[in-house]
């Protein structure tokens, strides 16, 4: 704590609170405002702002900044004789309250305290006693400290008393002018959204996914990157040399010879810095069509207001903006809201059905699409970009193919300045018919360059998983990535409908051109499980997939091996209204393999693809086993059903239950219950294998096994099942798929400070107007007019074309710095050493030439 809080100050006759109890209170000294505010804190006698706990998590230190100190005088004056005063030796705050007592329209609160003091006098002397004063501390409308201290409000008995007088404070509503506020509800709404892109679900085969779970990497993506770059460079060059010229010759003949010697050095330096920020939004195959939206979520808190003076009641809704965000949501969810507000649903542009490649079929004129499953042919929709070629979705497990389209635009500016200087100094001599000229030639140049660049790129991506090997010869399609542009104004003008996308001129639909679709006449049969077994029979169940397919039946086959194309030893047929079958005539303690497929009526010709193979071992004589589940959040002791899928929110809890009944038949037909073991398995989205996540081996017979799951966002798309075993015999339950939806937690209680009714509604109206003004301005997202930015600082993607929130998004920031230079190490010394060496060499040559000329003259 600051020393000033606990240090005597003789100058202003004010003293710290040195005795326990130490006062602690909070007050909103600034009053109501549209901005979020934190209360000030009174500790001892000092008031602090920006109070923070000293924790390892927050890293905060101390109590924050000091606002001021409560008024606590160090003297007691005689009212009739101001020169008669007594000192004090002990000070403490007996009680403190915070409340709005000044009558301010902003409801500024004040600290009101009872300050206790002990006179500076020896114990049991005549002036040995305590007294109390009232002190207050507040801020005016300009934030200036206002404090004061009232006269003595109480004093203790004198002469030898060993106790003091302690006074408590209260701030009651004595004139019945307050209101009672009770929290009732809250609800979340969004401003009119701006659509950035629609992501069509990557094409896949739904019944193959349900039977084989082959989707691993498939999905559609949309992302943008924005970068800025700066560059600087300079060049320094120097040249120094010598020039020698000789003119001579016999009479009537002139000869001229000249030689130049020069050396030069140059130093170049250039530095470049590029900063880029990117964000991408992805959807996974099998999750349905998605849309990328920019919007502002708002939470409305609803309160009931009761005026205690008049008895009247009313309702107030207080809005709170949660800040602009960009989200990836299902098109179905968007459409439900769009229809309520008479907006065109986005599904209007999408005629595909997830999991059915045939509904993605593209109409082509050669290789040019003229109609497809994601909007082409609708008003205002044009093809913007198309990938170069088609790829086939082949029957090859564990593989996938990705196509991307990247569009980049950039601007670059560069300014270059330079200066060049050339000159020479020449001297000569004439000896008879010979003339000699020699001297130095020199030159220098310098240059400076500066530049900046900006780039924006958009990347569209699509990944399609290849089909499982079992689909060979029965399933397949060919696909490529395409991007359509939706002109909102043209759509609304041509169709007469409203899209309702706030301030959106254009958005993208990222989708797929699909052709050459190959599908069997009947789908794959899903949900095939064995849920009961005894010594001679197995009972199977499956999903009802042929109810609307006349001419087909269910064929359950016993296979020779676990191979996908294994030979079927025998068949049992069930008509298309059945979803279960019992296979009799088996041997005890024997392992069998089974699969199911759609077959043509009256035959065993397989039309659809076979299911995954399940292996079942029969029980010993006289024993039976049945399994049930998984059931989600089943009541204790209830009969367990089977939940093939559940929907929950992240942060919630899920309990999956499964039970196995193992019975031993006695000679008198009595039944004895036996306890099986349980093993729980999980496979996350994108994983290829189930992994063990839980086990129970000590449960009593007839007791269900439970798997407790604290759900997170990572559980979206996860699958669970339970293996029930007894000795070496076991059965698997069905599989439960978990879907995670976004959720929110509502407050349970709200405490409000009583305030006057008229001012309450005045403040609420002003706050609502301020909020709505803010919302209307920012619904379309921040714009580039918010101010200039440092070119070396990555621009946070907060505008609608570069969203900042990453709900289901990936963001990345990259900084690249490049420095290039010639002769960079010790460059200056090297350069000028080179020039000096050249100058010395030139001077030497001049001297040598002069000597040679003189010698030649002497010879003549």
Report on the architecture of this protein.
A hairpin with a 2-residue loop joins β2 (40-43) and β3. Strands 11, 14, 17, 20, 21, 24 and 25 form a seven-stranded mixed beta sheet that branches. Strands 26, 27, 30, 33, 35, 36 and 39 form a seven-stranded antiparallel beta sheet that branches. Strands 34, 37, 38, 40, 41 and 42 form a six-stranded mixed beta sheet that branches. The chain has five helices and 43 strands. 28% of the residues are buried. 9% of the residues lie in helices and 48% in strands. The termini are far apart. The chain is flat, with a radius of gyration of 44 Å. With 860 residues, the chain is mostly beta strands.
Descriptors for this entry?
860 residues; seven-stranded mixed sheet; disordered N terminus; mainly beta; seven-stranded antiparallel sheet; 43 strands; disordered C terminus
Give me the Rg, rounded: 44 Å
Q: How many β-strands, per DSSP?
A: 43
* Biggest sheet statistics: 7 strands, mixed
Low-confidence stretches: 1-15, 55-60, 743-807, 816-860
Mean pLDDT: 75
- Helical content (DSSP H or I, runs of 4+): under 10%
- Secondary structure category: mainly beta
Beta-strand percentage?
Answer: over 45%
Count up the helices: 5
Shape: flat
Spatial separation of the terminal alpha carbons:
103 Å
């Amino acid at each position: 704590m600051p020393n000033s809080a606990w240090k005597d100050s003789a100058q202003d006759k004010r003293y710290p609170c040195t005795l326990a109890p130490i006062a602690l209170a909070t007050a909103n000294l600034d009053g109501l405002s549209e901005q979020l505010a934190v209360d000030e804190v009174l500790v001892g006698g000092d008031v602090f702002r920006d109070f923070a706990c000293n924790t390892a998590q927050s890293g905060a230190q101390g109590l924050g900044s000091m606002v001021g100190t409560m008024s606590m005088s160090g003297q007691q004056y005689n009212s009739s004789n101001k020169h008669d005063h007594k000192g004090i030796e002990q000070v403490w705050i007996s009680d403190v309250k915070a409340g709005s007592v000044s009558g301010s329209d902003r409801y500024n609160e004040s600290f009101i305290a009872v300050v206790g003091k002990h006179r500076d006098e020896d114990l049991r002397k005549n002036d040995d006693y305590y007294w109390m004063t009232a002190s207050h501390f507040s801020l005016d409308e300009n934030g200036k400290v206002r404090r004061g201290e009232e006269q003595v409000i109480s004093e203790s008995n004198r002469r030898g008393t060993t106790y003091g007088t302690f006074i408590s404070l209260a701030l009651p509503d004595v004139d019945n002018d307050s209101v009672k506020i009770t929290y009732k509800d809250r609800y979340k709404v969004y401003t009119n959204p701006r659509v950035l892109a629609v992501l069509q679900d990557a094409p896949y085969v739904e019944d193959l996914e349900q039977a084989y779970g082959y989707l691993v990497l498939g999905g559609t993506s949309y992302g943008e990157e924005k970068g800025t770059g700066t560059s600087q460079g300079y060049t320094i060059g120097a040249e120094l040399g010598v020039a020698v010229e000789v003119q001579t010759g016999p009479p009537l003949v002139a000869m001229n010879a000249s030689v130049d010697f020069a050396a030069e050095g140059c130093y170049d330096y250039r530095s470049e810095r590029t900063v880029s920020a990117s964000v991408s939004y992805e959807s996974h195959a099998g999750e349905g069509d998605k849309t990328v939206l920019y919007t502002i979520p708002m939470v409305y808190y609803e309160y009931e207001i009761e005026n205690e003076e008049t008895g009247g009641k009313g309702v107030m809704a207080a809005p709170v903006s949660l800040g602009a965000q960009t989200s990836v949501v299902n098109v179905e969810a968007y459409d439900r809201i769009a229809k309520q507000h008479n907006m065109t649903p986005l599904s209007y542009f999408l005629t595909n059905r997830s999991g059915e490649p045939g509904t993605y079929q593209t109409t082509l004129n050669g290789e040019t699409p003229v109609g497809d499953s994601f909007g082409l042919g609708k008003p205002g929709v044009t093809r913007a970009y198309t990938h170069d070629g088609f790829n086939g979705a082949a029957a090859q497990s564990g593989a996938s193919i990705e196509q991307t389209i990247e569009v980049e635009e950039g601007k670059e500016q560069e300014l270059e300045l330079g200066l060049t200087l050339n000159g020479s100094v020449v001297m000569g001599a004439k000896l008879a018919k010979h003339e000699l000229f020699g001297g130095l030639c020199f030159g220098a140049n310098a240059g400076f360059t500066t530049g900046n660049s900006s780039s924006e790129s958009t990347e569209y991506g699509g990944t399609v998983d290849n089909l499982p090997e079992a689909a060979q010869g029965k399933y397949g399609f060919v696909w490529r990535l395409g991007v359509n542009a939706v002109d909102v104004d043209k759509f609304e003008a041509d169709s007469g409908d409203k899209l309702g996308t706030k301030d959106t001129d254009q958005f993208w639909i990222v989708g797929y051109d699909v052709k050459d679709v190959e599908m069997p006449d009947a789908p794959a049969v899903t949900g095939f499980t064995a849920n009961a077994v005894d010594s001679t029979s197995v009972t199977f169940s499956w999903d009802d997939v042929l109810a609307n397919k006349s001419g087909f039946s269910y064929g359950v086959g016993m296979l020779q091996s676990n191979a996908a194309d294994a030979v079927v030893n025998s068949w049992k047929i069930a008509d298309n209204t059945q979803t279960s079958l019992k296979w009799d005539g088996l041997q005890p303690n024997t392992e069998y393999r089974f699969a199911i497929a759609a077959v043509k009526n009256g035959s065993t010709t397989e039309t659809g693809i076979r299911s995954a193979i399940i292996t079942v071992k029969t029980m010993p004589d006289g024993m039976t086993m049945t399994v049930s589940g998984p059931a989600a959040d089943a009541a204790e002791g209830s009969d367990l059903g089977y939940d093939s899928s559940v929907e929950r929110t992240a942060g919630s809890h899920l309990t999956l239950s499964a039970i196995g009944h193992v019975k031993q038949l006695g000679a008198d037909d009595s039944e004895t219950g036996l306890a099986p073991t349980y093993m729980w398995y999980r496979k996350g989205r994108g994983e290829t294998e189930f992994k063990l996540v839980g086990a129970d081996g000590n449960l009593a017979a007839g007791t269900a096994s439970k798997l407790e799951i604290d759900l997170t966002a990572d559980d979206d798309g996860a699958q669970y099942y339970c293996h029930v075993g007894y000795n070496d015999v076991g059965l698997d339950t069905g599989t439960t798929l978990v879907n995670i939806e976004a959720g929110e937690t509502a407050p349970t209680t709200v405490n409000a400070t009583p305030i006057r009714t008229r001012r309450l509604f005045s403040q609420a109206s002003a706050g609502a107007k301020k909020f709505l003004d803010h919302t209307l301005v920012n619904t379309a997202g921040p714009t580039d007019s918010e101010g200039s930015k440092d070119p070396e600082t990555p621009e946070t993607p907060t505008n609608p074309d570069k969203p900042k929130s990453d709900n289901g998004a990936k963001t990345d920031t990259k900084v690249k710095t490049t420095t290039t230079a010639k002769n960079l190490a010790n460059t200056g010394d090297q350069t000028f050493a080179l020039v000096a060496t050249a100058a010395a060499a030139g001077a030497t040559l001049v001297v040598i030439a002069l000597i040679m000329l003189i010698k030649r003259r002497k010879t003549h």
